[in-house]
Amino acid sequence: MENFGEKLDKPNSEVNKPETIKQETMVPSLENPNEEKEREYRQYERDLVINNPEFVGINFDQDYIIDSRNFWSQEQWLQHIKEKDGEIPEKTQSLIESGETEKIISEKKESELRKKIDFDKYLSSFERKLKYARIHPAGESSPIAPSQALEVKPDGSFEVKIAPEFIEQIKKIQEQSEDLTIVVPFYDHRRGEEKASNVPETEDQVKQYIAICEKIIEDVGNDIQLEIGNETNISRFTGAMFADKLQHASHVDSAEYGKFFYEVAKQLKEKNPNVKLSMAGIACFDPTYLREVLTELKRMQSENGVNTSIVDTVSFHPYREKPERGSVDVKNGQFTISDLDYEGQMEEMLKIGKEFGVKVTIGEINFPFSDSEQKIKLEQSISLTAKRDIPSLIYPGVNVH
Question: How far apart are CA 256 and CA 183, in angstroms?
Fold first, then answer.
């Protein structure tokens, strides 16, 4: 049964799935895998991590990280719908009057509680050999997206409320891993569908986002890395496969993101100098955007007399058709054909990292779960990256289309 939000709020169920991009054409979506095959591939990816912990890590996605909306009361859901749509639809009103909503809420809460049990089993299966981990239930499904973590009052004041179940999951991963990155998405339903995942732009939006980051640090400590947004170098207009993905913004603007990152980093580093910060992962291969953002940050630091580093890591998400082939190139928010193979692209990323004094990682890597050669391709890709001592974090193939 659909959850209360799916029936009443109709969120996009596909928003959390990254895309594998061919250089010439899109890879079509495929049928969902059966549970047994999915389990097999999850175990295979886990084995890659525990056998190669020095250069292979894992992403914890929406299949294991709780969606705190499913712990909401009916009242909270109705408030969410009012904020998003301005009114309660008649269909929703009928569900409430019939008593169906309470049943939906109860069932989805039970589902989330089962997910917590599955998460514990999955985490323990890494046998304490997990070094690199990244938490990324993308867009609106993340418990730390403004949509879930912020309670905004009528007078404009707000309160940050992060689900204790999610904090518990973070702490458990911290106990198991040495290097934990937590993606803090931008998604906020209050901004309307078009702007929901744009870089926060108003003073209030920036304050709210910083408050969420500070609350995470307060709850779990500063021995973490916060990733400020995700794949800000592409938009819903970059390619047809992103058109209906609400975790992507309506436009791409490197100067806008650079300015925002600076404001966030400056405040977080002043209060918590030991916390690490990562730029939003770069989708595909986009050295132009990366260099523009880092140049803007360097300029703002110089103008404001900030001598300490405010960005620790840059990463890219080299989804592609073949391990040796480079990812499709992105420039000014549009796809172009890259002249570089994968090794050449890594060399360019390392060159930029060295120039600006930042660490380079592969934040997400995998091939479509439906690809009969997925396992071979993933191993080859990780091997190519490991030769350059770059850690790669597997994004679960069952959610790569």
Answer: 19
- Please say whether the beta carbons of 160 and 114 come within 8 A: no
Q: Please choose, from the candidates 170, 364, 198, 204, the residue with its C-alpha nearest in 3D space to the C-alpha of residue 281.
A: 364
Please name which of 369, 292, 367 lies closest in space to residue 327, comparing C-alpha atoms.
367
Q: Is 208 helix (H, G, I), strand (E, B) or coil?
A: helix
Of 129, 5, 55, nearest to 361 (Cα)?
A: 55
What is the pTM for the complete model shown?
0.90
Which stretch of DSSP H or E encloses residue 225?
strand 225-228
Backbone angles phi, psi at 219, to 5 degrees: -80, -35
C-alpha separations of 48 from 40, 52, 53, 362, 397 in Å: 13, 6, 8, 15, 13
Which region, left, alpha or beta, applies to residue 260 given φ > 0 means left and ψ of -120 to 50 means alpha? alpha
| Residue-wise pLDDT tens digits, 268-318 | 999 999 999 999 999 999 999 999 999 999 999 999 998 888 999 999 999
Question: Do the beta carbons of residue 82 and residue 123 sit within 8 Å?
Answer: no
CB 216 within 8 A of CB 204: no
Give the start-to-end residue ranges of the domains of the chain.
21-67+127-399
**E strands present in 275-348:** 276-279, 282-283, 313-317, 329-331, 334-336
Element (H, E) at 6: helix 4-8
CA 195 – CA 15 distance, rounded (Å):
15
| Strand ranges, E, within 24-178 | 56-60, 132-135, 150-152, 158-160
Secondary structure tally for the chain: helices H, strands E: 12, 13
d(CA 368, CA 301): 41
3.40.50.300, 3.40.600.10, 3.30.2310.20, 3.20.20.80: CATH of 21-67+127-399: 3.20.20.80
pLDDT digits (tens, 9 = 90+) for 134-180: 999 978 899 999 999 999 988 889 999 999 999 999 999 999 999 99
